[in-house]
Task: structure prediction
Amino acid sequence: MNNTSVDSYLREGCGRCEHFQTPACKVHLWTPILLGLRELLRKTDLEETMKWGSPCYTLNRKNVVMLASRKDCCALSFFKGAALVDQAGLLESPGPNSRYARLIRFTNQGELKSRRRQVKELVEQAIALERAGTKVVVSQAPEQVPAEFEQRLRAEPSLQKAFMSLTPGRRRSHLIYIRGGKKSETRRRRVEKCIPKIFAGRGFNERV
Result:
């Protein structure tokens, strides 16, 4: 993963796959748009850095926005996007399980040009929210616990205690992974895969 610098990211790629430092890296599909977004962000009070192989812009070490490159688009992602007032309707959820983040997709330079004013306003709004310490308020509806996992929790008090001691985000990562199994047998296998990480105090996607 390339966390060297944004210049290196634009020149050599993200380093997430075998196409790093080759013309085939998906970063090179969107260079003009990424340069335009970078120019806009560097005119703000945000600090430019690299995290997770992508350009990240922070305020007082708090993540505010990030640039992302995909095969089908590039995007400007807002870490607290759910708290933004989006009158132009540009923001969308990265996926069905995303609670806080929102992003704006770009597939051509024309989109960046036509949306520049709205994008700038959203960035300024995101900076103001971070300065104010605003928290994202989302639905607190209880997470659905798959029956296969609920049975294990009831049968093993130590597992239940370890699971409940995790942060809400870590608990949610395990539930999302287990629920993703279409068959009961698959969900049971996923439960077994989660258990060591639960006892280790980690979310499903966390590495040692």
